Amino acid sequence: MSRIHVIGAGLAGLSAATSLAARGASVVLYEAAKWGGGRCRSYDDLQLGCRIDNGNHLLLSGNLSTKAYLDRIGAADTMTGPPQAVFPFIDLVSGAYWALRLNQGTLPWWVLRRNRRVPDTRARDYLALRRLQKVGPDDLVADLLGDLGHLYERLLEPLAIAALNTKPAVAAAAPLAAVVAESIVRGGAASMPRYPAIGLSESFVDPALAFLRDHRVELRFGARIAGLTISDDRVTGLVGPQIDEIVAPNDRVVLATPPWVAADLITGLVVPDQFESILNLHFRAGIDSGPAGFYGLIGGVAEWVFEKTEVVSVTISAANDRLDTDTDTLAAEVWADLRRGFGLPRTMPPYRVVREKRATFAATPAQLARRPGPRTRLNNLFLAGDYTATTLPSTIEGAIRSGETAASLI
Ligand SMILES: Cc1cc2nc3c(=O)[nH]c(=O)nc-3n(C[C@H](O)[C@H](O)[C@H](O)COP(=O)(O)OP(=O)(O)OC[C@H]3O[C@@H](n4cnc5c(N)ncnc54)[C@H](O)[C@@H]3O)c2cc1C
């Protein structure tokens, strides 16, 4: 029986592997690390004495590929979030609190209600969102939407930074438009915030690995692929420190590594090559979980704060310019913001700063133009990963969809 070799057990690889295994394919999964999940995982932090995620990950109920993946691996009930599309915000400068509340249906009557929309905005301001329906590849978020005053500063800018992990002055508007089209445009039912009830691994990784074991997929951890043997127009072998595997004539390969690894393995492959970091600070503290379990922060160092079981977790996106800030300074700045927003004590509790340097590719027009499709010049090699040309930004939904696409081509 021919085999399918999936390289990389991040969400793109897990999506491809589970999708193929569900259709009865014989799959082997190779992962360089000793664990799965890639940039989306949980681990025990000895210093904090609890389990944390590498970073807060927010999804939306309109993420349909993610929903199908969670259904497939039997993990749909591991996700949680409010029963409606509610997004609470705190302005750390003025102390103002508000919650954006979309109605469930596709007719957006919520913009007509002052208490459901962003403070100091008018219903007609929201008509400007139509600009997102006609974006060109070179349109930038700030150029397209930056004139919208409070609607921009209090909603669109934080939304764009969260979705694109790139400063709006240089970020392309097209992937933001793709996110909005799959969520807000489809109404509140498609825009409900979703996140794991326990942790990223408990929702996205552990159930997928259990599913793969149940489907007799061979899981090889600590199996870094360092080179591909190529003959004419196909991959004929996989090589690495622990691996020397023949790829038989009818076998197929899905390469689901990050882009920099894919470019190393395939000569001449053009991929995004500029990245943005995300910093997450986990404090051993608690805040009121509010109506959604998290808050958007306006006017502070960080953009989002999540109330978790054992920690308060704060996200700073598009953070290349904060990478060199030392840990204590960063923690003190963020703790000062949390104190202002939530009345927390002066004494800073134990904390952990997680710096994901290459969290996503930079969503600039020039980088988007470098996204490859799923096919390669080698006829048995397919690409998956959040960096491939999904139209979506570098997200869980994009990664999972790319895995499905590769699987369906096979
Ligand atoms: C801190 C942070 C916060 C984020 N927040 C959000 C969010 O709120 N919402 C959202 O939707 N997305 C978010 N993302 C993005 C999301 O995590 C990624 O888009 C997604 O996890 C990428 O999955 P992937 O499978 O494409 O890549 P990866 O997760 O990078 O997986 C690639 C895998 O390949 C393995 N590998 C690498 N080289 C080799 C090799 N040579 N041989 C074998 N295996 C190899 C790696 O170890 C890894 O497991 C966030 C990311 C980070 C880092």
Which descriptors would you attach to this protein?
FAD/NAD(P)-binding domain, seven-stranded mixed sheet, 10 helices, 24% strand, oxidoreductase, EC 1.17.8.1, SQase_HpnE, Hydroxysqualene dehydroxylase HpnE
Apparent shape: globular
Task: Tell me the CATH superfamily of the domain at 3-43 and 199-273 and 364-409.
Answer: FAD/NAD(P)-binding domain
Helicity level, as a percent range? Answer: 25-40%
Count, helices: 10
Strand order of the largest sheet: 8-7-16-17-18-15-19
H/E topology pattern: EHEEEEHEEEHHHEHEEEEEHEEEEHEHEH
- C-alpha Rg, in Å? 21 Å
Q: What profile does the largest beta sheet have?
A: 7 strands, mixed
In percent terms, what proportion of residues is strand? 15-25%
Structural class comes to alpha/beta
- Mean pLDDT, to the nearest integer, reads 96
Q: Which ions, cofactors or small ligands are bound in this entry?
A: flavin-adenine dinucleotide
Ends apart, CA distance between termini: 15 Å
Q: What CATH first level of the domain at 3-43 and 199-273 and 364-409 would be assigned?
A: Alpha Beta
- Enter the CATH topology name of the domain at 3-43 and 199-273 and 364-409: FAD/NAD(P)-binding domain
Q: Are there runs of 5+ residues with pLDDT below 50, and where?
A: none
Tell me the number of strands: 20
Please tell me the CATH architecture of the domain at 3-43 and 199-273 and 364-409 by its name: 3-Layer(bba) Sandwich
